[in-house]
Write a structure and sequence with these properties.
globular; 7 helices; binds iron/sulfur cluster
Length: 166
């Protein structure tokens, strides 16, 4: 739902704070999740994640959530699925060249990330791995953060502008 998606971008700062609290909570319950088994949890968590993020962000369940770097504007709603900024076809009114009625998700991402002011907009995102489509980002983040394998962008993966901004 596009109106809800735009609302989420407009309220990116508050949503980021909410997400940080949520992430803190899931890290506390991670040992329980591990005990139950991540595989067993995948299906029910995917159902919840799909509904909540589908409503709020038009989430496409790519499995590698980038919302905290994209001002709460889901990059998978870009018709070209670009993960590192807009193509050269953004219209003068800020709309998409493929879907003229839609604001470019990267114009929205810039506005949302200005409000979030976390400097992550300039992190270079990995190419999307389509094998993860349909899986839970929440569970992946939980497991990777606990195991120390979460791919936090390294200094070398930030643009020069990003290095100045952080
Ligand atoms: S980046 Fe991926 S997981 Fe995050 S909202 Fe978009 S499709 Fe969903």
């Amino acid at each position: 739902m596009r109106a809800m998606r735009l609302w989420s971008v407009r309220n990116s700062r508050g949503l980021m704070k909410l997400y940080e609290m949520f992430e803190g909570t899931i890290m506390v319950i991670e040992p329980l999740a591990r005990k139950i088994g991540y595989q067993k949890l995948e299906r029910p968590v995917v159902a919840v994640e799909r509904n909540i993020k589908g409503l709020m962000f038009d989430c496409q369940m790519c499995g590698q959530c980038a919302l905290s770097s994209t001002g709460m504007s889901c990059p998978m709603n870009c018709p070209k699925n670009l993960r590192n900024g807009p193509c050269g076809g953004v219209r003068s009114n800020g709309h998409c060249e493929v879907k003229p009625e839609m604001p470019c998700v990267w114009v929205e991402a810039w506005e949302g990330s200005q409000a979030m002011a976390n400097g992550k907009f300039f992190d270079v995102q990995e190419p999307v791995d389509h094998r993860m489509k349909g899986s839970s980002s929440w569970l992946r983040i939980m497991r990777q953060k606990k195991d120390g394998t979460y791919p936090e962008p390294k200094e070398s993966a930030r643009t020069d502008i990003g290095k100045i901004a952080t």
